[in-house]
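Q&A log
Question type: sequence-to-structure
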Amino acid sequence: MKKYSMLFVIVVFILGIVSTASANADIAFSPANVYFADNGKLVVTGVLINKGNQNGIVDTARLEVYRVDENGQSLLTSANFANVNAFVPAGGTLNWQFNISGVSYTEIGHWRVVADLGYRW
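Response status: OK
Response body:
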């Protein structure tokens, strides 16, 4: 009987380790629109998507915004954001916008955004 009890304890322990190791957050930013606001700031709107099975908090973000035309793409601006503090639930989404100051107005037309997020769970 002691053998089975010990075996049960070991199996429960291993399952606990495996389930803890597989818990994570996997957060990405999916941009929806890029435009200049009336206050002159460049606004990038979109959705933070957490494909993980653990709640996550986005701490930092680096965005690169490209203008795309028939000649290819050119970097419009890049910006770093600290203290974002955006809570994204496991398997969930959160609408989000980034405001970038100091960008000279230009017609954007088509655009592409590359986002690199720093997050924790």
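Response note: Helices lie at 2-21.
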